Amino acid sequence: MSILVSLVGLGFLILIHEAGHFFVARAVGMNPRKFYVGFPPALVKAQRNGIEYGIGAIPLGGYVKIPGMHRPAAGDLDVHFGRAVDEDPSVRRPVEELRRRLEESDYEGARGAVAGLGESVRTAEVSPLARKAAERGLTDVDDALGPDAYWRAKIWKRVAVIFAGPAANLVLAVILFALLFMAGGGKATQTVDEVAPSAPARTMGLQAGDRIVAIDGEAVEADQIAARISGSGGKPLTVTVVRERKTITLGPVEPRRTDGAYRLGFVLRGEGLGAGESIWQAVRVTGIVTKEIGASVGRLVTGSGRDEISSPVGITQASSEAVKQGADAYLWVLGLISLSLALLNLLPLLPLDGGHIAFSLLEGIRGRAVKREIYDRVSMVGIAIVLLLFFIGLSNDIGRLN
User: Fold this and answer.
1) Which pTM was predicted?
2) If 0-12 CB within 10 Å is exposed, 13-18 middle and 19+ buried, where does residue 151 land?
3) Which residues are CB-neighbours of 327 under 8 A, at least 6 positions away?
4) Rounded CA gap, 5 and 84, in Å?
5) How many separate helices (H) and strands (E) can be counted in the chain?
6) By the 8 A CB rule, do 334 and 343 touch?
7) How far is residue 2's CA from residue 13's CA, in Å, rounded to a whole number?
8) Residue of 393 and 364 predicted with greater confidence
């Protein structure tokens, strides 16, 4: 059950990401052709204002189709219409006409050629498979030649649409962190919330609900408790608590060294912060985590951060473990994953969002488009790097499972 919850959570993060692209694309005049909850094929779909909304058969994430992500190229025609040309030579002439228009960058003439090719495809004697590929090609090429195509838009619009996906994940992370701070994760109190099994605190008799008022006979405030225990050097400590209006002294017991510090093994109850302070703390935490993720990428480049990479397998396992620990832990991990997803997509690699942003800015600086061949070659390098990172993460996750 915990794995199912974690998968739904990961799917929700992807859906939020795609929704960011979708709504900003509509706002700047790029009319998306499809928006799905889940991935196609569609279980249910409906057309509204030229957009196909649907629920996909693969119930994870979401999918948005923005027209004309790439300038149409003559080479695309072989993929779409090659089979139809082989089965019915009558299709060859209109395909070659469209090819010539694209090679000459005559995009207005190409739209007329698409209409003529569509008529030829409708009357051609070809197999269902060839017809389906050709019809899909007609739709894709016509969309790419339309006035609302992505590649035709101004640079700032293209950057806004692409950045909106990671931005949606970033905003979601801040919202989740802020809600957790408001719900009680912002400021520790003197009240014990949880005592770990087999911990020194359990041995001395500390209980959830106890309010710690002194350590070794010296009064403490909430923000002094952890430091007083850690600073003991491992010497036996007594803890004075108020329990059901009675003052009780527990111990002495020796703290246990854990993660480089001496601890008794209990968690203090949190006190919620106000909305403004919660948002500020959420932004601060987001900045700290972003800095650490950036440092880990730097270590990866130098070859020392290989063991810090995780694949979707490890991410699912971590979120599944968080589900078992409770809602707060799960939402915290979900926020961290959402932030990581945003930052990963901003890496300047095609086909990631950061790669599209980088190329859009490059075209704006150059004042002319980058050739499609360069896009394709850089995309191949980017895909290879992403796959390499995936397999490194997967090998790390398998090693951790063992």
Assistant:
1) 0.78
2) middle
3) none
4) 46
5) 13, 10
6) no
7) 17
8) 364
